[in-house]
Structure formats: structure tokens, C-alpha cells
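**C-alpha cells**
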Amino acid sequence: MILFLAARPVTAPPVRPPRRRRRSPYARLFAVPGTRAFAAAGLLARLPMGMLSVSALLMIAGSRGSYALAGAVTGTGLAATALVGPVTARLVDRHGQARIAVPATALAVLGSLALLLCVRTGAPNWTLFASYAATATTPNTGGMSRARWAHLFHDDPAARHTANSFEQAADELCFLLGPVLATLLCTGVAPEAGTAVAAALLLTGVLLFAAQRRTEPPATRTLPLPSAQQAPAPLRSRGLPPLLLTFLATGAVFGSLEVVTVAYADAHGFRPAAGGLLALQAAGSGATGLLLGLLPPAARPGRRFLGCVATMAALLTLPLAAAATGAPVLLAAALLTAGTATAPAMVTGMGLVQSRIPAGRLNEGLALAVTALLTGIATGSAAGGWAAEHLPSPTAGYGVPAVAAALALMITAAATAVTARRP
């Protein structure tokens, strides 16, 4: 009996495998070699985008004593960017990011330095327009970054969705910090300091970005035919024109919101707090952009986009209501809440743009989206400025971004209905 018991095998309790922690979607992105390097360089190259126009505005207005002249010069540069940007992006697609982005950036930096010298030496006004127009060759670093993510994760929609969320949050961060840094440099160091620092950051950032060759998408001229070299122009892509119109209206939201907030704060005696109010709006947008990246991509992105634009239109009525109270705290809360809807709309919209553009024309298509946004921002700024000067109450100015958001919703809803009716 004792021998029998001794011979029986002793069964050990089952060993449970260690529980594996689920990796964050963002950790998956940056686990790929080379992604951290180009993302960091892209952030550095994008920061001047929020600095250049503000620096030029402050530098010209301070030296020439005319905000009208300063606004006309920066407006001319914006119009030139809308024309030249897609051409630069098309060259990037065809010949590669490094071969085009570096010389294009060098030309843009020379334009910024020429503007600085013209202002410094008291050159005629026409030289200011010519110099600032030369900065239109600045490449769209955000579009090039998104193209790299699309290349690296061409077969992983979830990763591309997370990458788009990260890129949108990066855009918000740069446009949040850029104007603040430019204002500090122009007012605290020298009127020319903002332009000089922005030009240096732009050139350094693009050089570092272009040096990351292992994550660079292949140029279309190197691909075999038939390939993206024969792809149709992005504007002929099905469903893209309505998206660009929505981006145009969304840009008008951004441009008008900035102007009417500054005007409202000035009228109510708390103008120094205007920057903080706008920072809250950008912070709310950036935070929700990052949170959206943690969610899986939508099975029907068109429906999600419609929902995001509808939410944006609804929440942008809050600043109008809060401004009527005259309480800065309520306005701050309303702007923070309204900002939470803009990034999800932009992230989902950019994803739709990428899905509707031929692979070999991606930079060009994204440049068209950015051009639509910039055109909308310029239009919204002009409309917001007109409202601030001509409407009887500064509160009514907040009706401009609300109307622009409603227009974006109407365009998106109409496009969604047409798509649903197609076989």
C-alpha cells in the first residue's frame, strides 16, 4: 500500500500564464523603428507654422504703424500658399520628400529673412509683399508625416487611425504654442526675433525630418507602371470635393473664433486673457484628438464624420450663449467644451481624405485639404473682423463661427445623403 501510494504521480496545480498587459495604440505606433525620430522632427518643423504669420504681423505693424498693411502682407502670403502648396506637394509625391522639401524650405527661409531685412532697412512696401509671398514654398510637414504613417501602416487601418489622431493633436499643440512663442519673442526680445527664430526652427526641423530616410515613402517616379504615376488628380477623386468644402467651412470656424474672441475680450476689458481663452479651446481639441486615437476606427467613417461635424455645430453655439452673459469664466468653459469637438471632426475628415486619394498623390491631396483649411481661416478671419467692427454688440461676433459650423454640417449632410443614394 505504501509502495502504491509512493508510485502515484504527484500532480502539480496548473500554472496560469502571466497576464499580458495590452499595449497602448500609441505604443504600437512608436515601437516601429524610425517613427519617434521623424515625429519629433516633424513637430519641430511644424512649430513655425503657428509663429510665422503672427511674427510678420507684429513686426510689420510695429515698424510701419499699420495693421492694415501687416494684414494685407500676411493675407498675400496665405493666398500664395494656397496656390503654391499643392504644386510643392505634387513634386514631393513624384520626386520624394527629401529631394523637394529641403530646397523648398530653403527658399521659404530666404523669403522670411528677406522680409526681416526689408522691414529693418525701411524698404518700400511692395518688397514686403514679394518677400512674404516667397514663403509659400514651405512644405506641408504635417501632410508628409501623415504620408509616412500611411506608408508604414498601409495594411493596418487601426494604426492609421491612431496616427491621424496623433498628428491632429500635434497640429493643435503647434498652433497653440506657436503664437505664444512668437508674441513673447517679438514683444520681449525684438520685433524681428519671432521671424528669425521661426525661420531657424523651420530649416532645422525640415533638415532633421528629411534625414529620416528609412521611413520615407517611395517617390512615384520610382514605381513601375501602371502605378500612382498614372493616378487621376485628387480633385477628380470621388467624394473629395465635398470634403474640401467642409474643410473650408471648418477653417472659417477657426479663423473667426480667434478674431471674435480677441475683439470680445478687448471690448470687455480683459484682452490679456484672450490668449488663454484660445489656448483652452485648442487644449480641449488636442485632448479629445488623443483620446480618439485610443478608439478603434469606425466601420462607417462617413457616418462618424457626420456625427462629429454635427457635434461641432451644436457645441459652437455655447460660446455665443456664454458671451451674452459677459462672464469670462463661462466663456472659458464654453470655448473649452466647444474645442472638444473640432479634433474628432478633423481626424475623421483627414482619414476620409486619405481613403479617397490615390496612394501616389497623397501629399498633393493632403495639401489640398490644408489649402481649404487655410482659405477658410482667412475667410473666417475677415468675416470675424467685419462682425467685430460693424455689429452693434461684440457678443454677436460669436454667431460667425456658429454659422460656419452649421454650413459645414449642411455640406456634410448633403454629401452623406448623396453617397447613400448611390448604388
User: Anything to note?
Assistant: The CA atoms of residues 162 and 293 lie 4 Å apart. Residues 1-10, 225-229 have pLDDT under 50 and may be disordered. The radius of gyration is 25 Å.
